[in-house]
Design a protein that fits this description.
It is a single chain. The protein is 17% helix and 29% strand. It is of the alpha/beta class. The protein has two domains: 148 residues, Spo0b-associated Gtp-binding Protein, Chain: A; 176 residues, P-loop containing nucleotide triphosphate hydrolases (Rossmann fold, 3-Layer(aba) Sandwich). The strands form five sheets. Strands 14-15-13-16-17-18 form a six-stranded mixed sheet, sandwiched between helices. A five-stranded mixed sheet has the order 7-3-12-9-10, with no helix packed on it. The chain has a three-stranded mixed sheet with strand order 8-6-11, with no helix packed on it. It binds guanosine-5'-triphosphate (GTP) and magnesium ion (MG). The site of guanosine-5'-triphosphate (GTP) has 24 residues, from α1.
């Protein structure tokens, strides 16, 4: 249950004291999956969408016993289905989005004035914060709110049957319409906001190890730079049923903003993260430079990153040198510093608590607005 947590964080101006109710992170109920279940995060997808064709109208003339000319009774065709993107919090990436989508066709009309059935729309769930661009790269839509929809391809209208064409002068029309074809378009869809918290750091700082330690995500870990090539997402559950999504992004290097290395193409993800966590390898002496470079690169990419909540994780404190450096970082850095060892799990609980505090603070700010 909740308990009052008094936390102490060193900052430049002295010691910060908070007295706040913080939900505890829950233990994972399910075991980690066996085998090679590495699933990366799909953040961009190009797809072709085709609306359903409308059903054809029908030409028919009713004949009844003792009423030979009972009249035209051809029904209208049903409308074809649209292809729709809908923002949903149920999905976190574009893994479920097929590369080619076609909505169902409407049914044809038939005799007895039976209208064909309208086809159901094909709704594709995409994460909240998805940007929709056409094939030339022009932005067509931004699904920034839960439930918002974007009609990607309209279905064709159903054709009219001959009953529709009865007029004063033409009592027995022998015409009907074909159903219209659905639209056929190409889109590129991109996820901008995928996580509440983004892990940013140099290659080999231990971001993937940290994400493995705090969630069920299983990004690859290896002692060489650029192990992680695509973002990975992990979810932390708390006892108040809140879930925090944490993203492990590919490592940044100096001049990333000039498109060196990999990181820059993924920095757009951090734009809508509510908080940034810098993962620093504290076993290296140049930890301070690393933090400055990371902040410089972010600054070059977009300026308002300074308004976001930020936290520094001094990783690898199982190494004695790193423990000393982490203590020094706590003294000299203006940002809150949490020393952890992603490998041994030391102090991970404190980090999860910090993340929850940041999440709660940001949520209450949004509600007040
Ligand atoms: N001793 C120690 N080693 C660690 C710790 N965390 C990570 N490592 C090691 O550091 C190396 C790099 O870890 P990764 O998690 O792959 O680093 P990364 O930041 O994801 O690297 P990229 O994906 O290349 O950007 C691996 O050999 C890890 O075993 C730690 O807390 N202590
Ligand atoms: Mg990695």
């Amino acid at each position: 249950m909740f308990k009052n947590v008094i936390r102490t964080l060193n900052s430049l101006g002295g010691v910060r004291l908070f007295s706040q109710k913080v939900a505890r992170p829950l233990r994972q109920k399910k075991p980690k999956a066996d085998g090679n279940s590495i699933q990366s995060f799909v953040d961009v997808r190009q797809l072709r969408v085709v609306g359903g064709a409308g059903g054809d109208g029908c030409i028919s003339f009713l004949r009844l016993w003792s009423n030979e000319y009972a009249g035209p009774d051809g029904g209208d065709g049903g409308h074809g289905g649209h292809v729709i993107f809908q923002a949903s919090t149920n999905v976190h990436d574009l893994n479920n989005v097929p590369t080619s989508v076609k909505a169902n066709n409407g049914e044809n009309g038939s005799n007895n004035d039976c209208h064909g059935k309208n086809a159901n729309h094909y709704v594709i769930e995409v994460p909240v914060g998805t940007i929709i661009k056409d094939a030339s790269g022009k932005v067509k839509g931004d699904l920034h709110t839960q439930g918002l929809m974007f009609i990607a391809a309209k279905g064709g209208a159903g054709g009219k049957g001959n009953h529709f064409y009865i007029s004063d002068t033409e009592q027995a029309p022998k015409i009907c319409e074909y159903g219209a074809k659905g639209e056929e378009l190409e889109y590129i869809i991109e996820v901008r906001s995928m996580a509440h918290i983004g892990l940013i750091g140099f290659p080999n700082a231990g971001k993937s190890t940290l994400l493995r330690a705090i969630s069920r995500a299983r990004p690859k870990v290896a002692p060489y730079p650029f192990t992680t090539l695509k973002p990975h997402l992990g979810i932390i559950q708390y006892e108040d049923y809140e879930q925090i999504a944490v993203a492990d992004l590919p490592g940044l290097i100096p001049d990333s903003h000039k498109n060196k290395g990999l990181g820059i193409q993924f920095l757009k993800h951090t734009e809508r993260c509510m908080a940034l966590v810098y993962v620093i390898d504290a076993s290296l002496d140049e930890f301070y430079d690393h933090l400055e470079i990371l902040q410089y690169e972010l600054d070059k990419f977009y300026e308002n990153f300074k308004n976001k909540s930020q936290l520094v994780v001094a990783n690898k404190i199982d190494i004695p040198k790193a423990r000393q450096n982490a203590a020094e970082m706590q003294k000299i850095l203006q940002l809150p510093v949490v020393p952890v060892s992603a490998k041994t799990g030391e102090n991970i609980a404190a980090l999860l608590r910090e993340m929850k505090i940041i999440y709660d603070n940001n949520n209450t700010e949004e509600e007040e607005e």
